[in-house]
């Protein structure tokens, strides 16, 4: 784990806090984005790190609440309510600030809520979706999400952004085998998708590579989000001071 060193004469690299809505460390995620993180110092915290099983269970989605999916430290999957998780997410952000991070990246492409923070809070949803919209250009986008109850929201968000129809399908990044991911990707590609976006931080580089082996151009949210955050943070740290 890399602890950020911020400020002072010895500061040479910016510090980035990585906040998962599940539990840290995300040993399934960091190897995929280590190269992108090489330009910054970083620290991980999870919204659920300080909660026991009962506390986590109380954050399950209520009726009408958007469903989020993440990973616990033992590798199991958990469903969370986008509103219910806000206080726990605030706590993880505060722990990043206490570790002297210059900015925080919330590792979730769903709609998450949190309170104000004393440092910039970046969202994987914004960064990854912006970059993916540029990558797809005028092409047709296919989107994979973890669970069927997210499909309507995913389609509405992407169609609102792109101004055209997208093709979406559900396959769980945490529980599905590679063959199931490949089959779902083939189905979306056969429906006319030119590029497939794996719209959850849980989707891995290995799953992207399985689609590539099928001839399907694909990209993961984790890669785009972390790359975008590091670029923003590094650019800000290199910017000349503003004149008084």
Sequence-ordered SSE layout with sheet pairings:
Layout (H helix, E strand, L loop, with lengths): L14 E6 L9 H8 L3 E6 L6 H5 L9 E5 L5 E5 L4 H13 L4 E5 L13 E3 H13 L4 E5 L5 H12 L4 E4 L7 H13 L4 E4 L6 H9 L4 E3 H18 L6
Parallel strand pairs: 1-2, 1-5, 5-6, 7-8, 7-9, 9-10
Antiparallel strand pairs: 3-4
Helix pairs in contact: 1-8, 4-8, 6-7
Task: Supply database-style keywords.
8 helices, Rossmann fold, 2 domains, globular, alpha/beta, 244 residues, disordered C terminus, disordered N terminus, four-stranded parallel sheet
Whole-number count of domains: 2
Q: Using only CA atoms, what is the Rg?
A: 18 Å
Which percent range describes the beta-strand content?
Answer: 15-25%
Strand order of the largest sheet: 2-1-5-6
Overall spatial form: globular
**Parts with pLDDT < 50 across at least 5 consecutive residues:** 1-12, 238-244
* Secondary structural class: alpha/beta
Return the average pLDDT rounded to an integer. Answer: 91
Count every beta strand, where a strand is a DSSP E run of 2 or more residues: 10
What series of H and E elements makes up the topology? EHEHEEHEEHEHEHEHEH
End-to-end gap: 37 Å
- CATH topology group of the largest domain: Rossmann fold
Oligomer: single chain
Main sheet? 4 strands, parallel
Q: Output the number of helix runs.
A: 8
Q: Helix proportion of residues, in percent? A: 25-40%
Can you tell me the CATH architecture of the largest domain?
Answer: 3-Layer(aba) Sandwich
CATH class of the largest domain: Alpha Beta
